[in-house]
Amino acid sequence: MESVDYRDKTGDVEALKELAYLCGLILGDGTVCGSDYGILIRSTKLELIDIFCENTRKLGFRPYVLKYEEKAHKCPSGKIVDRTVYYARIRSKAMYAILRPCKLRDYKFKIPSFVFRNRKAAASFLQGYFDAEGSASFNKAKGFVEITAGSKHLSNIEEIKYCLGLLKIRAVVSRKKRCYVLSIADWPSRLKFKCLINFRIRRKCETLKRDREPKRRYYSEEVYQKTFELRKVGMSYGKISKLLGVPTSNLHRWVTRKVTPWGVKNIRDRDEKTSINNRR
């Protein structure tokens, strides 16, 4: 017997958030079994199994876990290894009714409609999905954390992008080899993801903590105008870069776009405010 009818409990915000998280987790990396109304998740990471069990207990279920040794598993790299696989499972006719229409064939899915009616539910759903299917990796070359999620179906990625858009989080979709990848790259969107969504997986959460606001470079009006003067007399971008201390890519952008860049505008406005304050 189930202790809660979730169709009647959507007014409870905490229950709604946990329900949305479970939906994200299952649509990302779970299975819906039609024979016995089973909701199942399978992983080699025990932490994900523990999170699934904790979440379902909050919703009034009694999850049970199975463990077995998988022999001769072939990794994507081609290497043959033995590994321990964990299964966590609940049985629920109510959850089956919610998830069965959303978990489609060939790993396609659509987000349950109740997720779009509440921002907290949308954030919890995305947290569950990114815990199961997303990744957070620190890019040393660029100096920031890359938040990504992939799928072989563009429709799946578009659903997640739309849900992120409800929280004003900008995402970019690109095609890589045999799958589509959603990336959250710009700093304001990464910050919103960190504050509104984040991860429950400890490893991913710790990686996201390393993300920092990129350092802004400011250039004076004199340096900006000097660039155009030196280009008119035929000096190369490389020589101008050494002379003025500005990266070549910035110089090329200034000359080709012919629009005052953000860094120059900002320092100009800041200097004007400083001079006005000094007069006072």
Outline the fold blueprint.
Elements: H1 13-29, E1 30-33, E2 38-43, H2 46-58, E3 64-74, E4 80-91, H3 93-99, H4 119-133, E5 134-139, E6 144-151, H5 154-166, E7 172-176, E8 179-184, H6 187-196, H7 202-209, H8 221-232, H9 237-244, H10 248-257, H11 262-279
Antiparallel strand pairs: 1-2, 2-4, 3-4, 5-6, 6-8, 7-8
Features:
280 residues; alpha+beta; Endonuclease I-creI; 2 domains; four-stranded antiparallel β-sheet; 21% strand; elongated; disordered N terminus
Describe this structure in a few short sentences.
47% of the residues lie in helices and 21% in strands.
Oligomer: single chain
Q: Radius of gyration, Cα only, in angstroms?
A: 25 Å
Q: What structural class results from the helix and strand content?
A: alpha+beta
For the record, the count of structural domains works out to: 2
Q: Quick one: CATH superfamily of the largest domain?
A: Homing endonucleases
Named at the architecture level, the CATH assignment of the largest domain is: Roll
Question: Secondary-structure element order, as H and E?
Answer: HEEHEEHHEEHEEHHHHHH
Shape: elongated
Report the sheet with the most strands, covering strand number, pairing sense and barrel closure.
4 strands, antiparallel
Mean pLDDT over the full residue set: 85
Order the strands across the largest sheet as they lie in space: 1-2-4-3
